[in-house]
């Protein structure tokens, strides 16, 4: 099953497998349902006409998007290289407790075809392609989408306490194009790819599989829910294993293409 959100004439509308759900359908309602009952809940909904409207990010304005850090070896290596406090990333990679941080509220999220941003006060910026978990109110993983955790490497590298400024700003988070409803076991060997084009020329390309992640997906969701409740569910970015070379930085006009499984998310940089 595949959920998408669209800009319809009557306001934002959710769709299931290309057909509109009722106007009053809200993702919050679905994410209040136990994982075992998600399919039957959706099958009870009356589907309407086919979708024709522009895609919106598959998240509602009040949803929280959180993120995980240093979950792949490549991410640990990149953080150690850029940071004046490299041992912090070595320790977190091997620690029991993962790195988790707040990334965005739904109203700040950029959708497919929208524009992500780099900070004006940063000189070293990269996209980070990630599997994004869709988690219900019981902290069960019910699906996934593709995400881009745009980051300022020089700001985070200068001081680890600057991480919120390196990660959280207007245009720093994109999600889409939709949500694949899936058991978490099916997410453990997904291919993630990223390409960056500049003036139509390919300047970066790489790929990785989620099987190379250090931590399990359930572990990340469980730690997030230890002392936090999300009555309407939450989105959790699971970290990146793709990092461009150290002399690379995003420039306005770059086109970033990310795929997670069969999902494709493209955004231009401004």
Provide structural commentary.
The chain is built from seven helices and 17 strands. Helix content is 17%, strand content 36%. By secondary structure, the protein is of the alpha+beta class. The chain has two domains: 55 residues, no CATH class; 206 residues, Fumarylacetoacetate hydrolase, domain 2. Strands 1, 2, 3, 4, 5, 6, 9, 10, 12 and 15 form a ten-stranded mixed sheet that branches. The protein has a five-stranded mixed sheet with strand order 7-17-16-13-14, with no helix packed on it. Strands 8-11 form a two-stranded antiparallel sheet. The protein starts with a strand and ends with a strand. A hairpin with a 2-residue loop joins strand 16 and strand 17.
Give the distance, in angstroms, between the N- and C-terminal Cα atoms.
33 Å
Give the tally of structural domains.
Answer: 2
Q: How much is the radius of gyration in Å?
A: 18 Å
Percent in strands: 35-45%
The overall pLDDT average reads 93
The CATH superfamily of the largest domain turns out to be: Fumarylacetoacetase-like, C-terminal domain
Content-based structural category: alpha+beta
The CATH architecture of the largest domain: Alpha-Beta Complex
From the 3D structure, determine the CATH topology of the largest domain.
Fumarylacetoacetate hydrolase, domain 2
- CATH class of the largest domain equals Alpha Beta
Q: Element order, helices and strands?
A: EEEHHEEHHEEEEEEHHEEEHEEE
Structural shape: globular
Oligomer category: single chain
Poorly predicted sequence stretches spanning 5 or more consecutive residues: none
Helical percent range? 10-25%
Secondary structure tally, helices: 7
For the largest beta-sheet, the strand count, sense and barrel status come to: 10 strands, mixed
**How many DSSP E strands?**
17
């Amino acid at each position: 099953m595949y959920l998408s959100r669209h800009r319809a004439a009557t306001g934002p509308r959710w769709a299931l497998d290309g057909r509109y759900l009722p106007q009053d359908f809200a993702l919050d309602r679905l994410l209040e349902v136990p994982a075992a009952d998600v399919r039957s809940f959706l099958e009870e909904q009356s589907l309407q006409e086919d979708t024709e409207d522009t895609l919106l990010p598959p998240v509602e304005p009040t949803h929280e998007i959180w993120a995980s850090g240093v979950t792949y070896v490549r991410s640990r290596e990149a953080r150690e290289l850029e940071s004046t406090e490299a041992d912090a990333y070595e320790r977190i990679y091997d620690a029991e407790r993962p790195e988790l941080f707040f990334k965005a509220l739904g109203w700040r999220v950029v959708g497919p075809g929208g524009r992500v941003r780099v900070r004006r006060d940063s000189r070293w910026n990269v996209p980070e392609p990630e599997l994004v978990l869709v988690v219900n109110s019981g902290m069960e993983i019910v699906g996934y989408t593709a995400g881009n955790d745009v980051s300022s490497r020089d700001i985070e590298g200068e001081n680890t306490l600057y991480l919120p400024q390196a990660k959280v700003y207007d245009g720093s988070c994109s999600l889409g194009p939709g949500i694949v409803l899936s058991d978490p076991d099916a997410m453990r060997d997904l291919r993630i790819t990223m390409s960056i084009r500049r003036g139509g020329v390919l300047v970066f390309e790489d790929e990785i599989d989620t099987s190379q992640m250090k931590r399990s997906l359930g572990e990340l969701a469980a730690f997030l829910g230890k002392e936090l409740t999300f009555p309407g569910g939450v989105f959790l970015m699971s970290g990146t294993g793709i990092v461009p070379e150290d002399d690379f930085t995003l420039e306005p006009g770059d086109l970033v293409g990310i795929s997670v499984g069969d999902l494709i998310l493209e955004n231009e940089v401004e």
